[in-house]
Structure formats: structure tokens, C-alpha cells
Amino acid sequence: MLPRWAVAPYIASGQLRQLFIKPGLSVTTNKNFAVYLLYQKQEIIVPKVKVAVDFIRDRVQDLYGEQAKINR
Q: DSSP secondary-structure letter at 32?
């Protein structure tokens, strides 16, 4: 998934086609729900990637505590 502003020119030219997902995406508090975050490790960590990863990790741990399985 990409932001609409990034792909708007490609949609307008016909190179990409917008897909409508039904049912729409939603947020859940289901404890059986898994979140996978995959990113390429680099020698120099991009600050915005680190902030995003740390934010998601912290929210998952806040919600699920000891049940949260976080692999690095």
C-alpha cells in the first residue's frame, strides 16, 4: 500500500489501478492478531525508521504486555 499522493500520477496515466478492499482495513484489539514489521537492517539506521519501529514496538508491548512476542 502506498499513499494516494505518491501514486496519483500513475493512476491518472493508467499505469496503476486502484483496488478497493472490502471489507475495509480496520484496527483491532483482538489478542490473537499478529503484527509483522519487516525492514532491511543497514549500517546506518534511518532515524524515521527507528522512530516508527520503536513506536510500534512500544504500543504492542503496552497493549499486550508479557504476551507480546518481539523478535529482533
A: T
Q: With contact defined as beta carbons under 8 Å apart, do 30 and 36 qualify?
A: no
For 18, 22, 47, 58, the CA distances from 50, given in Å and listed in that order, are 30, 32, 5, 12
Nearest to 28 by CA among 58, 60, 6: 60
Between the CA atoms of 68, 23, 26 and 65, what dihedral angle is there, to the nearest 10 degrees?
A: -20
Peptide bond into 3 cis (omega under 30): no
For the stretch 23-55, pLDDT in tens is 665 666 666 767 777 777 778 888 888 898 888
Whether residue 16 contacts residue 7, with contact meaning beta carbons closer than 8 Å, is answered with: yes
**How far, in whole angstroms, is CA 31 from its chain's centroid?**
18
